[in-house]
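can u do me a favor
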């Protein structure tokens, strides 16, 4: 097995589980009839994604650079868990305020679903995925609206993937979300992971933060998929190795640092002390998220410089 793929699987905790692939039609019908999610807005707790689906989403999102992509996950329900077995990409250009899924796209979707049925695929479309290149997985105001519409045809999940942060950190940056009903009073108890949100998106993030919750995401694979996974991996990996993270993600680093400097300026203007009397802690704020953010950019930039140097040594070293 490919060494880098093995490392990627270990780093992201991908387990082999053959049992998840068995499709029990009767059991699916039973749970779809019972609809336990109707009476409990936090019914779904987990989202398990196959490595095949993950690599397809990552490659799709990477190809679009800083544009957003969109597609549909295929899967089933097991207890309080979404099992995502596969995905298919939609020919659609999406932005945070507008999704241009025209008639052409709907036609493509219907044709693909028909083809999948003909091919004997039993899994159904279980939501939608889209990418947030460089600004992290969360739901924007538009996404919350889209997901609320999706949930009318429940059970549906919203998956958001960040290909740029995945590339710079080496760790998959993905989130799976469910929205609450509009009149629901969201509890304060959910502990979300630290996220750095660009300044221009913070307001939108803050307003809609309590309209949805995050599911626990994990990954699995099947030994039968190995060959396909290696092909997809090679495509993704070669794309990653042959491109320079410093150049490809230049926009991400520059806007990230600008953003950070604006956040620090905002913090400074809130303080009554003059600049030179402020300690570093005061400049960055006591808030733990703000303390982590400069560190995050420093580590990512370091990693990019380091991998650039290693590639230079490996590929251009002359004896
Ligand atoms: Zn979005």
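np, heres the sequence
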């Amino acid at each position: 097995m490919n060494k880098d793929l093995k490392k990627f699987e270990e780093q992201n905790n991908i387990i082999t589980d053959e049992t998840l692939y068995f499709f029990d039609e009767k059991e699916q019908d039973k749970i779809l009839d019972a609809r336990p999610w109707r009476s409990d807005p936090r019914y779904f707790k987990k989202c398990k994604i196959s490595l095949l689906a993950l690599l397809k989403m990552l490659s799709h999102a990477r190809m679009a650079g800083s544009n957003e992509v969109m597609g549909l996950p295929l899967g089933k329900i097991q207890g309080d868990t979404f099992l995502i077995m596969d995905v298919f990409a939609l020919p659609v250009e999406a932005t945070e305020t507008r999704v241009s899924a025209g008639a052409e796209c709907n036609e493509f979707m219907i044709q693909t679903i028909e083809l999948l049925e003909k091919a004997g695929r039993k899994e159904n479309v279980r939501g939608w995925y889209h990418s947030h290149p460089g600004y992290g997985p969360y739901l924007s105001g538009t996404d919350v609206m889209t997901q609320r519409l999706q949930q009318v045809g429940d059970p549906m999940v919203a998956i958001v993937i960040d290909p740029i942060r995945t590339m710079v950190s080496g760790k998959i940056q993905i989130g799976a979300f469910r929205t609450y009903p509009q009149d629901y009073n969201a509890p304060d108890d959910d502990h979300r992971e630290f996220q750095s949100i660009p300044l221009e998106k913070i307001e939108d993030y803050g307003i809609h933060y309590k309209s949805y919750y995050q599911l626990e995401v994990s990954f699995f694979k099947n030994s039968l998929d190995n060959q396909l996974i290696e092909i997809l991996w090679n495509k993704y990996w070669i794309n990653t190795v042959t491109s320079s993270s410093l150049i490809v993600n230049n926009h991400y680093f520059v806007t990230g640092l600008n953003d950070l400097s604006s956040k620090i300026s905002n913090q400074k203007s809130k303080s009554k002390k003059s600049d030179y009397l402020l300690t570093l802690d005061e400049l960055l704020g006591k808030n733990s998220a703000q303390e982590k953010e400069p560190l995050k950019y420093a580590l990512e930039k370091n990693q990019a410089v380091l991998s650039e140097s290693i590639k230079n040594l490996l590929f251009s070293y002359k004896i």
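The first helix runs from residue 3 to 11. hope that helps!!
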